[in-house]
Amino acid sequence: MTTAGQLRVSARFADRQIDDLTVDLQRPSVARLFIGQLPDVVIKTVPYLFTLCSHAQRAAAQAAVNAALGETPRPPEQEALWLEVLHENLWRLLLDWPVAVGLPPAREAFIAWRALRQDAGCVAQTRDLIEQTLRPLVAACRERLAAATGDMAAITPAPDSRLDAEAWLAYWRGEVAEPPPLPVPASVLAAYLARQAEVEAAVTALADGLPFPIARAGSAGWGVGQTLTARGRLTHAVHVVEGRVARYRVQAPTDGFFADATALAALLANRRFVGLDQARQALEQAILALDPCLPYTLEVHDA
C-alpha cells in the first residue's frame, strides 16, 4: 500500500513463558477510496495502492468486479502471478528466515535471481537456485527450528490452495455473521516448510504454464474475488449499485492473522524458554511464520 499501516506486538516474559500477548493492527481505510467509483476504475487503481503483491491484488479485484457484474472473467497475467509468489517466498526463505534462526542470509543468491527473474531462462535459474542454495539452507534452518521447538516430526505440507469465494460471498451479503476463518499454521516449523513447498509448486506451475488459482462468486451487483499470495488467501469484495461501487472490502492474510493475538499465541502455546532473549527470538519467529505485510514493532517486557 502507499501507507501500509503499523503492527504492534507486545508481551511479558515471566516464569519461562510468554504471557499477556497483545496485538494492535492499524490499517489505512483504502476501500473508502473506491466508494462512488466506476468498477473499472477500482481495477486500474488497485495495483498503485498495493505495491506488495500488486498482481494478486489486481487479479482479486478483477475477479470480484467480474462476478458482481456478470462479466466473462478476463485472463490474468499468469506468469507475473507465479513470479510474484516466488519472489515473496524466496525473499523470506533466503533472507529473513536464516537470520531468524541465527544463520547468514543467502543475499547474493537472491539478488542474482531477482535480477534475472524476468528473463526467458527464469525457470532453469529458479531450479538451480532451489537445488544449490534453497534446499541446503532449508535443511539447516529446519534443523534449528526443530531443535528449538521440539517439533521433530513435522512433515512438509502441501501448499494451502483452498479458496472459498462462495462462503465469503454469503458473509458479504449478510447471510452469515462471520467470514470464513483463515487456516492457521499448525506450528512455526509447519509454516516454514509450507513456504518451501510453495516455491517448489510455483516453479513447476510456471514451467508447465498452469493457471494461477483464482476464484470468483456473485451476481446482481455482489461480487467476491479470491486468489493466493505468498502469505495466504487474498479476498476482494464489492457491491455495485447503479453502476457505482457502494461498498468495498479487502481482506488480506495479515488482517486475519493479526486481528487479535489468537493465531500468534497458538504458535507459542506450551513453549518454555531459558531467558528473555530466547523468548524474544521465538516470538520473532512466530511473527515471521504469519508474515505480516507491513512494518511491525515488538516489545517483550521481563517480569
UniProtKB/TrEMBL annotation:
It comes from the Bacteria. InterPro entries: NiFe-Hase_large. Gene3D superfamilies: Cytochrome-c3 Hydrogenase, chain B. This is Ni,Fe-hydrogenase I large subunit. It comes from Dechloromonas agitata.
